[in-house]
Amino acid sequence: STRTLSLNTGAQIPQVGLGTWQSKDNDAYKSVLAALKDGYRHIDTAAIYRNEDQVGQAIRDSGVPREKIFVTTKLWCTQHHEPAKALDQSLRRLGLDYVDLYLMHWPVRLDPDYIKDGNILSVPTKQDGSRAVDITNWNFIKTWELMQELPKTGKAKAVGVSNFSINNLKDLLASKGNKLTPAANQVEIHPLLPQNELIDFCRGKGIMIEGYSPLGSTDAPLLKEPVILEIAKKNNVQPAHVVISWHAQRGYVVLPKSVNPDRVKANRKIFTLSDEDFEAINGISKAKGEKRVVHPNWSPFEAFK
Ligand code: A2P
Questions:
Q1: CA–CA separation, 51 and 23 (whole Å)
Q2: Is 49 labeled as catalytic in the residue annotation?
Q3: 247 within ligand 1 shell (Cβ under 6 A)
Q4: Any keyword Oxidoreductase (predicted)?
């Protein structure tokens, strides 16, 4: 799909973008290059993915003009007090002059000196037993007040948030210092976590929804769902086409991740689902219950509802 959607800044965002969480080193480089050669014009990364170097290198090597590509990166939780500096650091790693979208990765600040090199998400407490989440001297409203100044610098064409609940967004929008509505809210969405209320809320406020882990993340569990397999067989398409088409038909940005060039290419192909098939996919979470797959046990998104 080459379809684009409109952000509240007036910019266009390609509906299907390449996700790069868990894409490492040369895999990240190869998948971004394969995506751009195939016709993708939207790449999503983050400081904490530790692949901005490779992603940027692939963007520069692709030969696709910079202005034709929509690039997103994200502020990590340990730098909530210094988004301008963090953005400069990301741009340096990417080797780019600007990103199209800069997102606050989570609505929670982590102690800046909590972990130097590692995977903060898997360790909920510091070595001395204290909590990594700093909720006493800081909140995401302050972070947003700093972030909303960034578009003026031209280094981020738009700013937005990620992993924000409806209540988080209400707090942000109602805050005294808020001057700018986030351009986007990037959250986990797939047939087992359809996020219908959040999608409706964001639509009402002009905030673009972006769905991450659209196939259910690691090992793509959704591609094994009997309902999906049956629809794929009936339509003579791959299960991934069915799931990504369901997302696209719901009208938001979808960010499938793959490091395999063939699967990268496949994931951009979408088709129109019949009403019956669309409803059958909606029925999956109704029958099985909703399930968050990304950090279900460390989720500020849940903890700070
Ligand atoms: P790989 O990177 O080896 O292709 P999500 O987008 O929900 O985060 O899902 C990513 C997971 O789905 C990864 O394990 C990825 O593996 C796998 N994946 C991505 N695209 C496809 C596809 N078309 N068919 C099968 N598995 C896929």
A1: 7
A2: yes
A3: no
A4: yes
Residue 238 CA, ligand 1 centroid: distance in Å: 12
Check residue 303 and give its pLDDT.
44
CB-count burial class (<10 Å; 0-12, 13-18, 19+) for 65: exposed
* CA-215 nearest atom, ligand 1: 7
pTM score of the predicted model: 0.93
Give per-residue pLDDT as tens, 35-58: 999 999 999 999 999 999 999 999
> What is 4-219+250-260+294-303's CATH number?
3.20.20.100
Beta pairing partners, 212: 188
Residue 203 makes CB contacts below 8 A (sequence gap 6+) with 209, 251
Tell me which of 225, 258, 262 to substitute to probe ligand 1's pocket, judged by most ligand atoms within 8 Å of the beta carbon.
Answer: 258
pLDDT of residue 131: 55
Q: Which of 29, 40, 49, 252 is catalytic?
A: 49
260-274: average pLDDT:
96
Question: Which atom of ligand 1 lies nearest, measured to the CA of 266?
Answer: 23
ipTM over 0.95: yes
**Any ligand 1 atom below 6 A from CB of 24:** no
